[in-house]
């Protein structure tokens, strides 16, 4: 193994560890379950899912986790075809301090840019996440 290769493996391990910590901070067990579900079919993809989005992007200093999750909820809502991922990130948003009311407002805002069907699908995903959560004294 060359020094450059060993150094790259060390960097990848740091990315992985940093990403795993960030994933757990945001999504808790939900994020880990997603990664584990990929282990048998695409372990390299599971590793990349931790290293790039969470180890590299989410770990950048430019935005706090709350702002990042608001952006992700908006983007996934606007895509209109990523309900499972949207549910994970709605839960992640709640985990990092976004309120249910803010989640709803972000999704409603997407009706302007992505259309009513995308916003309706997003609100359905939010309702499902909220219903699965223990009551927190905030109206769903």
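Sequence proposed for the structure above (140 residues):
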């Amino acid at each position: 193994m060359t020094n450059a290769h060993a150094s790259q493996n060390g960097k990848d391990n740091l990315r992985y560890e940093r990403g795993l910590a960030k994933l757990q901070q945001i999504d808790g067990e939900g994020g880990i379950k997603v990664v584990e579900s990929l282990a048998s079919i695409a372990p390299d993809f599971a590793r990349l899912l931790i290293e790039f989005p969470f180890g590299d992007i989410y770990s950048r200093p430019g935005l706090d986790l709350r702002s990042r999750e608001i952006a992700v909820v908006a983007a996934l809502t606007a895509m209109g075809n990523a309900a499972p991922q949207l549910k994970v990130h709605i839960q992640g948003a709640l985990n990092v301090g976004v309120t249910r009311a803010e989640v709803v407002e972000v999704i409603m805002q997407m009706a302007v840019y992505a259309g009513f069907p995308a916003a309706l699908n997003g609100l359905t995903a939010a309702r499902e996440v909220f219903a699965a959560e223990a009551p927190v004294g905030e109206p769903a």
